[in-house]
Amino acid sequence: MTPAQISQYAFYFFAALAVVGAIGTVTVRNVVHSAIFLITSLLATAGIFLTLGAQFVFAVQIVLYVGGIMVLFIFVIMLVNLDVALHQMQFKRRWWVAGLLALALGGQFGAVIYYSRAGGVLEIPAARTGALSPQNVQQFGLALFEKYALPFEIASVLLLVALIGAVVMTKKRV
Amino acid sequence: MSDTRTTGFPGVEQTVLGADEIIINMGPQHPSTHGVLRVKLRLDGERIVDSECVIGYLHRGVEKIAEHRSYQQFAPYVDRMDYVAAVSNGLGYCEAVEKLLGTEAPMRAKVVRTILTELQRISSHLLWLGTHAIDIGALTPLFYCLREREEILKIFEKYCGARLTTHAFRIGGLQYDTYDGFEAETKRFCLDFSHRVDEYEALLTENRIWIARTKGIGVLSAADAIDMGATGPVLRGSGVKWDIRKAMPYAAYDRYEFEIPIGQNGDTYDRYIVRMQEMRQSNRICLQAIEDIPAGPIMGKVGKVLKPPVGEVYHSIEAPKGELGYYIVSDGTTQPYRVRIRPPSFINLEALDKMIKGHLVADVVAIIGTLDIVLGEVDR
Amino acid sequence: MSALLEFLKTYMWPLIFAVVIVAVLPLLAGYVVLMERKIMADMQARLGPMRVGPHGLLQPIADALKLLIKEDIIPENADKVVFWFAPVISVTAAMLAYSALAIGPFFQIAELNIGLLFIVAVSSMGIFGIILGGWASNSHYSLLGALRSTAQMISYETAAGLALVGGVLLAGSLSTREIVQAQHGGTWYVFVAPIGFFLYLVASIAETNRAPFDLPEAESELVAGYMTEYSGFRWAVYFLAEYANMIVVASIATTLFLGGWLRPFQGTPWMDFLDFFPPLCFLAVAGYCFYRTPKQPEPIQSMVMALFGGLCLLLAAAMALPFVPAFAASKPGLHGAFWFLLKVSLYIYSFMWIRFTFPRFRFDQLMKLGWYFMIPLSIVNVLGLGVYRVLRQLQWSRWPAFVLTTGGTLLVAIWLVWNAQKKAAAPSSVGDMTEAEG
Amino acid sequence: MVNDPSEKKPPAPAETPSEKPAGASAEKPAAAPPKPAAPAAPKPPAVPPPPKEGPVPLDNDLVKRFKARFGDNIREAWTDRKQAILVVDRESLAEISEYSRDDEGFDYLVDLTAVDWPKREKRFDVVLNLYSFKKNERLRLKVFLGEGENCPSVTGVWSTANWLERECFDMFGIVFEGHPKLTRILLPDEWQGHPLRKDYDILTQDTAWVRENLGIESGQ
Predict the structure, then answer these.
(1) Of B52, C51, C328, D140, whose CB has the highest number of CB atoms within 10 Å?
(2) pTM for the whole thing?
């Protein structure tokens, strides 16, 4: 069993876990259980990053999404009266909208995968499975601050706007 | 969300709680309600919107028992009220009955009573300090306090054989004279103790967290304190300079010099300072008293069977917790017709609802601690 | 079969280390508890556990046994699956963090180039154990404890993370091994970034829910916080997670600020006699054990005491092994582990010392401290350390650069404290704030 | 005792053994009916202390001021063991309380309790112990209440009275009119009977309650 094999098995394991988690998230009734499934899904995604050798993204995924955002999610869920939320049928009549959207998304994915077989739309870099890149963090930093500086800054501004918006909204309540 | 049958306020079960409100039932089994006190808290987040004390879990009907015992027989019962300050309870009762009889204890008895009562005040305050500190999260002072309290209890034990419910005094004086070495031991303790108080103060008084946790918490203005009938350190913490030992001296307090420490803001920190100073003052009284215990008899002229003349009397003393009063009605028989005990803890506790409103759950604990209640006395 | 052998060959040492961690950590945590109780007793003028084994040396084992055989109670209205699962999350997160820690240059499960980030990420998942456990118990005390805990950990994780960034900035790497090696020969980062160390100390106390920040489990207010409804072994698992977390944060601090496995004065030749310290230290403990052996009241206790003495003797022999020329190569591994664990112990000792000295903060005060003091200061600290690095690259000598940057950060800290005091002194600061907000 | 300033206050009608206060109506010493339902057998009279203490009628400035203001509503005034006692009319208790607090400075309600005299025509004494911080004096107000008669609440005058009146209600079944929330305080809410009444024997208990709530036959 070589490292490459291991990472292949690991990929399938994580991928399956991610899918199960995602399905659980939308099907389970209890909000907290749903959040737990979402966490599982996110963790599995982090695992996939790891099999791709993207250690930094793996860690950031856990720190931000699992350790940060999901904790706040659960925090909010607990502050809201759950019993009431549980008994409310939400979005019951909108299932066909959801179905349509899901279908469209699936079609999109299929198309992308189909056309990218020969390296068309998506440019998949040479996979570096297994071998740990020693300069992972540095590469990441360089990419972020040189090649993708503009998108990065735009994303930052977006987040800033969201932040200010949140502050304004909470202040109004006081 | 909550089980309204066990946690709801009467009359509030039907009302819908606000979106962020929950009801918490604190006690009767809770680590820091100092016994079987139960406080129902309605919380908005962690802030207290409303509260209600539920007491009576330790009710034993002491006042009813009194009507079926002779005057002497009832004396041990009073020890069981404020069981951390039994000597003070006994002093109040004995003096009340003496007043009813129209006699007085001899001077020697009075001085010994004063010494023991002041030691008891120190020990009661020590226990308060330890538990109050542990409520606020300082673990260590409790053990230091218990170490010193142990010394006091040893003196009690040597004097009368009991440590907690002492029944140290008798109506008319004392049953036992002081044991050999009583003066020396007490003096050694008192001389040592003033340094010990410095130690506790070093741990807490200037501690920033302690100050943050106690300053401005549970403020009771002087007017409110009087209106609520608060007495003892609670009243003095609010800045009312009133102490029965000075206002209406009993036992031998008029012989000794001491000061009445008072606070300014009526908050938890002030009450803490007042009690710390009171320990020093009690120590001072003990040191003065131990210097010359007058010679003479220890028992006044009271009969074997007490039949106080018809009438009634109210007598109160400054117990560690506040004004401890006995209102005794005599019908001329050997048994009191009615004994009413004015319990300081009970009436100080009444101020709790007012003091905790708007504070956080953590402050409730601090405020219950600062009131220094003993549930045996609240419920009697 | 051959594939399996191949696999084992590749991953033999990591697997062995992992087994050692999982096997030894609970025991270690148990003895940390015993240490804590003994230290607490000493500070409080009493003896502490004395009955089970000589000087209570077997107390952790007795405790573990008792907890194992206790009745396992699950509240009727609890969410059973989550209730069952929550402690496991906590302890898993805590243990997973050890995989990237380098306990000595030899003992490390996995060398990751994001080591520190990995540890922070994984241990941040421990919050879920607490919040889900509190929620699943279906009790107000538990829920309040869980909410408090979450808010507290999120707030202080920020400060702790920024304090770590400072250290990482100095080392130029996230790998635990490289961070320690960067301190080799130079000064430990605690002397370069004292404020960063202080920030991490405070934040790590808060993150592990220890006094004076132990609000989530403040027994005088919330009974036991999120653990209120837990009993028996589940409770023990939470407890294990708490102490394991303590060891993790202590290890991080040791790695980043205290030179990891490096001996003090590594670069100073005349201090080399310190190499003799590890075996001598164990020898002294063994000697004390043997000295106390005949004084035990029961023969069985004497035996246990002698056994402990023998164990220490064995450890001393192990520590002396590198002085035998044939085994000289084992020195970094053995002595490194010793120094690392010693530093971790000292760090944990400071935790305990603080715990027995201070009262507990109130929740709003804790948050205020976190957001108004710790986080601003840690940002300034990162800036200061960045400046320090630039100055050093500009060939400044160490002292001026240090005084300039740390002094500047200190000034900011003083300003923050002064500001907070001014605010507190102002009448009803709460009212002021709401007015300003409106 | 000698230094007790409050007790100096009544221009002490002497330490002398007081004979029956002549001015007082015969009803007042009935405050001490010679034979209440005392279950104990009379003990042999063994050297009773000389009865030098006892009720003495009181007519000092304080009482005069009260009488001037409230006239006949102040039924009687006497001192017992040098402690001043005013018996006031039931209806005017609230006003008298307010007057004592505001004008006479008795701002501290030390205690509020009751005494049960089942043989008497008016069965209950409600006793208010007052204290003045300014004058360092104590004063006792008494109200006589018949069975079924309500007592006006003084919670509006002193907040302390809240719990004290609740306790009084709990123990004696005296209803205080105008009390914000008159429920039992020490005993359980559903308890039957009022234990400090003289006709409530010391062994009596609400057996039904005990059985139902504690699951035992008897609390004794």
Answers:
(1) D140
(2) 0.77
